[in-house]
Each structure stands twice: as structure tokens, then as C-alpha cells.
Amino acid sequence: MIWDDSLIKKYDLSGPRYTSYPTAPQFDSSINKIALIDRMMAPSDSPLSLYFHIPFCANLCYYCACNKIVTKQYQKATDYVELLGEEMRLRGLMMDTQRQVTQLHFGGGTPTFLSQENIKTLFGYIRQNFNLIDDGSQDYSIEIDPREIDHEKLALLVQMGINRISLGVQDFDPKVQQTIHRIQSIDLVTQLVNDARELGIQSINFDLIYGLPFQSEAAFRNTLDEVIKLSPERISLFNYAHLPERFRAQKRIPEDSLPLASEKLSILKMSIQYLVEAGYEYIGMDHFAKPEDSLAIAQKTGHLHRNFQGYTTHADTDLIAFGVSGISNLHGVYMQNHIDLSHYKDSIEKGQLAIAKGYISHKDDNIRHDVIMTLISQFSLSFNKIENQYNIRFFEYFKNELEMLQPMLNDGMLEFTGSHNKTGIQVTERGRLLIRGICMVFDKYLNGTIKYSKVI
Question: Under a CB-based contact definition with an 8 Å cutoff, are residues 132 and 167 in contact?
């Protein structure tokens, strides 16, 4: 990947992260819920990917933009697990639950807010309603707050089938941690990593954030030094978007403590160079992985995909999400649960699915979905593949979009490939960091009224 300051300045726009297409702002609360359920009940032999949203956090992290409930009342998790069990039962009545669950993910909030008893009960409900696999080929993961777990709880998760973990690290600098209200020592994270290795965890991911208060290029290099010593298989390097008008907790972060835009870019540039030199491969957007990791291998073989959990190797699955704000995707049919816990609870207790809104993709959506997801995952696109799958002529169908790509072509961000430049698109090393901007050209729903994070 080539860092080009002039291109970044020119194309650092605001845009979607494309964990779906169409993206969540297109989901409609007035959609016919029966139509969504009918699609869910349609026969399918695709394997399943299950997602469980655990919204509770014992502590408030000031930077966080996730859907969460901050509380010290751990009993709330017990009640919530019962709701998840009932939601699973309701979903199970409407689909073939013998399909193998090849991917399972717990996000939040703080999934490790759950007690050991909660974890046992939840996995009991999952196994009662779905076909989990235990042959080592499963991709079962959980997001972990290092402050909310011990060796015994981690061992239980492994016993339940978890073989991947993602640790919220953000930054090891004590001043940064104090300002964002997330204090966790290097020793604490190191012990957790050692425990995970001892218990046989196959893959560890670290979440880092650049653009946080009091960060500098030199100080963040110290964090990266410690990260490399711990050698996680994957690293996610997220951009902090300061939007206090949308996320009240961010008002507690002094704006004058945030790095200037130029310093923020310097931190990102240094971080990318540092991680690549340390042997990590740039997967795309904010993800890095070791060459032998399944994400890196999937990208090389053309099997990498994106969904609401980010980059994934499981493109062939139906994603079924449980809990507040969970978004399911059944090959272009999207269903999002209520974001508010009281509304979610009310629906489940009435024996209803907690669907708040949804979307049913049509042919044009599916075409654009495949174009965008292929580009953002593989950095290349075959026109012939799209033409054969959808019976279209690519140059005619996307005539306007290809004209819009011309400035990016002139700037060396991409190339048209093949005989007479008519068989595909290849994103260059210069354009990889700006892939979201390239994908935005094919998004027909962008209208400037929705505020997204910056591409960089």
C-alpha cells in the first residue's frame, strides 16, 4: 500500500463502512413485518452465522458509540439471557435449525459482563435451538473487556466452544486511558493474552483507536511496541470520530485534547508502516492480519467478505442476530431488532419477534451489493462475473458510475484491466486506503443528508 498525501487530502470524504448494502439508513420501520418473516421462513441450505448483542457495560468509556447500557446491576444480564432464549425459540419455529452454525459472535456492550452462570445458560439455549459444531472448524468469537474477565470465565468460554477473542485495548498510554475513562494496564492485557494462549485460543484480535485525546505519533508508537510484543493474529485500527452531538458521553472528552487532523493522519501513517514492517498484512480499511491468518488467506483466494462484524471468511452464511439492535441478513433481506431494551423486551414477552425495521433488496441492490463488497474485500472486480450472474452489460449498466471513476483513474487509484480495459477493475496500492471512496461511486443511496465518519 502506498501513502499519498495529496490523494488523501482530495478523497478523505465521509461515507459508509459498507458492512451491508444497502446500508442501515435505508432500513424502513414501516416495512411489512410479515413479508420479512416470510423471507426468513424460505427454505435454505446455507450454514448459519449467529450474532448476540450483549448491551451491558459496568463502566462508561467516553469515546464509545456502541448501543450500550451502563449499569452495575448484574442481575439485568440474567433477565436478558432469558429474553435471548425466548427469541431463539421464536426464530427456531420459523427456520431449519439443523443447519450448521459455522460462525458465532458475541458483541456489545460488554459480552463478558455475563456471569459464568449466564454464559452456561445462554449456551444451553443456543445448543437447544441451533446446531453448533465442535470439530475445530468453527469460528466462534467474543469481544472482551480485559477488566471484566478472569481465568475461570475465559476457561468456561473455551469449554463452550469459543476459539477466537477480540480485546478492547484502544491505547496503553495512561494519560489517554484516564481521559477516555478506560484504565487497564499492560500487565492486565498481557496476563489475559497468556491465559488465552494457555487455553488454546486460536486467534486473538486487538482493537486499537487513533485520534483519541492526548495521542501523538511518538506516544502511539509505544503502544504499538507493546502490541507487537503480544503478537495478536489480527489488529483493528479504528478511527475515533468525535461526535458529541450524537453520543453524549463524548462531551466529557475535552476537544482541545484531541490531536489535530494533521497529527491524526501522521499517527495513522506511522501505524500502517509500523504494522506492515512488523509482518502484518493490510486487509482493508482498518484491519490487519498475519499472513497465515484465515483473513489474509481468504483475501488471496477470493473468499473474503464483509458483514456487520467486519471482514469475515464466511460469505455463504445466513446471518441471524439476537438481542437489542441486532441486524440479521438473509441474502439481502435485512431485519433490525429494536434498539431500546424496553421495546425489545415488550415484543419478546408478547411472543413476537422484536423487529423494528428492515429492508428487502431488489435486483439492482443485489448487483451493487456484489460490486461494492467485492471491491472492498478483494480490491478488484471482474466485470464478466457480474455480467454472467445478473445478465447485464457492465459498461451499459454502470455507464455513469464508470464516468465518475475517471478522476480516480487519472489519479492512479485504480486501473481498468484486460483487453481494451473492458474486463475489470484493479485498485492500485495507491488507492487501497481510500477504498470506501471508490465503493461510494456505486452507492445509489448517498444523498449528503446522512452524516458518516471520514474515510480516513
Answer: no
